[in-house]
Design a protein that fits this description.
This protein is mainly α. It is built from 22 helices and no strands. The longest helix is centred in the C-terminal third of the chain and has 40 residues.
Length: 540
Amino acid sequence: METQTVRETTAMERAQTERSRLALILPGLLLGMLLAALDQTIVGTAMPRVIAELQGLEHYAWVFTAYMLTSTVTVPLYGKLSDLYGRRTFFLFGMIVFLIGSALSGMAQSMTQLIFFRALQGIGGGALFPIAIAIVGDLFPPAERGKWQGLFAAVFGFSAIIGPSLGGWITDNWGWRWVFYVNMPVGALALLTTGLTMPKLASGRQHRIDYLGAALLVSGVTPLLLAFSWAGTEYPWSSPPIIGLFGASALFLVLFVAAELRAPEPILDLRLFGNRIFTPTLLAAFLIAIGMFGTILYLPLFVQAVLGRTATNSGAVLTPMMLGFVFSSIVGGQILSRTGRYKILAIGTVAVAVIGMFLLSRMDVTTTSTTVVRNMIILGLGIGTTMSLFTIIVQNAFPAQRLGEVTSALTFFRSIGGTVGAAILGTVMTNRFQHELTTRIPDTIRASIPAQQLDAIKNPQVFMSPEAMQQMQQQAAAFGPRGQEMLQLLLTAVRQSLASAIDTVFFVGMLILIGAFLLTFFIPEIPLRRRSPGGAPLAH
């Protein structure tokens, strides 16, 4: 009886959402997602100026890590709470906290303050992605969601294209603090439109919040993310800090599982994994995230350090891939809405991504720019559709009352996949590069250049820095004409070693995507709903 009442109430609220209202709601949601997506790409270009003013180079990584931690661990909490108490409240709360964190980050007087305010910003940012996608699920039936969620997924690609250039322009013309302040007017507009037009869409009954589960989840995921963020960079994988973090994570996650199995309304219901659609879809999305983030990390390094191409920033290198991503997101969503068939679309697009990654793994120092662009576009075309497609697949498998929970779970595991991928593929690249470089450096160079200077080039990022390259030219000049010859031999060895190492990363990424491809065959296909669970047509 209670369930029927909830359904009738939800159906009535949806029926009252007119097209003119949706025209205001959707831009507000898109603006909210764009804010959070841009923040992940726009800040990086401002960091050299930030460090120059605030000092604290040793804390550089924490500016990003703090945001990543808080935005990731809060995703499942927001998803569950928005199911219980309504999307509107938590979307607006996340937006307000994000804007407060942005304003405070712009006013930071030290790196410590900036890191703390970025963590606060992440607490708000964790609400924006999953709740916005869940709201689309509230407003449209699964058969209509493709064309809208494809547009939302395209926001990620669009932000990756314009973010780095926009961040550089703002930093050069207005100063680095405006990288954060620029969020304020856009956020205010998003708050105004969503606050005035968005329906509450809550169940209207009393609930019990799983405080213990929430605390254990945060306690388990935080050391896990830190371990993967630091392993292979800050500390060796086998070092006591990394082992300790993994151990603490395992302990708290075991306690979390035990608590969730007994909780009346768990934060992350483990019974979701018993659903024959949810589990393979989640695992496939997790594996695709590993491959995608690995590509985003190492494609710029290949283009700039191996091929010697110049770019205003590393983000500009990824423009062809992101254009393919945006095109695929929009077109794939339209195809899904028109055909209602998601399994063949999932199999086909992941297959294209596998082909794109295979082509990337075949590149070397002689590869042309045209070939690189072609390969990136193919990979983008494959990955783009999966972002919205997998979301619709899991949403279609569950009732409307659980949209927030399943959507946030998918977002959560994608975020974890990105972190895991960066750590694992980073280790693969580093180990392969150092092994190749050891075997390729000529003995004449080893005998002429001090070991300390040779160790400096084991960090391939050096070759993307004009300042570092200029310093190497000056050091080579000290050896006279022979110095330039040795430098060219050394640079050739480095480029060949780096090409081999990054090709290995792409090959491993291809194997991971093959795993995702095989999983798509295990996703059952059920008809996409064209009406709400309560029986009333949804707005479309």
